[in-house]
Amino acid sequence: DVKVTQSSRYLVKRTGEKVFLECVQDMDHENMFWYRQDPGLGLRLIYFSYDVKMKEKGDIPEGYSVSREKKERFSLILESASTNQTSMYLCASTLQGRANYGYTFGSGTRLTVV
Amino acid sequence: KQEVTQIPAALSVPEGENLVLNCSFTDSAIYNLQWFRQDPGKGLTSLLLIQSSQREQTSGRLNASLDKSSGRSTLYIAASQPGDSATYLCAVRRGGSEKLVFGKGTKLTVNP
User: Fold this and answer.
1) A33 within 8 A of A4, measured Cβ to Cβ
2) Residue range B15-49, pLDDT digits in tens
3) For the purposes of burial, counting CB atoms within 10 Å of the CB of A41, is it exposed (0-12), middle (13-18) or buried (19 or more)?
4) Exposed, middle or buried by CB within 10 Å (0-12, 13-18, 19+), for A54?
């Protein structure tokens, strides 16, 4: 089974801190994604990456950056955490261009910024 | 722009009932459609994926159908159990795009 592993289940950070959320997948997937999920707003795409060192902005990239130095790892960076970034963060991965292949999600990171 | 709608937002049924969850999408040029389950505070678990060329997929007590021309998919759950209580999310992938567009989900409660 494909595994997508997010390094932390829960994080509490202070306003202004630089925060790193890590995601690792073990099935050689080209595509990796970061979403945030908020009540009433659903899942919103922050960034995605289709190859090492390649990235594309999603719907809500402001206040975030990403890094993909190796194919299996995709990091989400909050440059200066703010309280409105308190949320559930979900990482996902998939193969490129395969209609019969779906997304696999990690177990999520609940981030609280105080 | 693709929009995905799931109605109702919440559903409560007695154990043993057969039920249908609905998903509609505005752009029929989809690549595939995926149904997910999410338990409170957890990540998403993939249930079924239907390619655009398919009409339905089955896994155990679950059956998902796809009608591209009308922009609709349904998830049928047979003989519901309390363990089926979760939020069910529908997501579509457009042709030429690697991204999924999600509905906001249907929160299902199965009462013993």
Assistant:
1) no
2) 999 999 999 999 999 999 999 999 999 999 999 99
3) exposed
4) exposed
Indicate which of A3, A7, A43 best probes the interface with B, i.e. most B CBs within 10 Å of its own CB.
A43
Cβ-proximal residues to B85 (8 Å cutoff; 6+ apart), any chain: B108, B109, B110
Distance of CA A22 to the CA centre of its chain: 8
CA dist., res. A23 & res. A7, Å (int):
6
Segments of chain A with pLDDT less than 70: 1-2
Find, among A5, A111, A7, A31, the residue nearest to A63 by Cα. Answer: A111
Mark yes or no for CB contact B42/A96 under 8 Å. no
Spell out which residues of chain B touch residue A51, defining contact as CB-CB under 8 Å.
none
DSSP state of B104: -
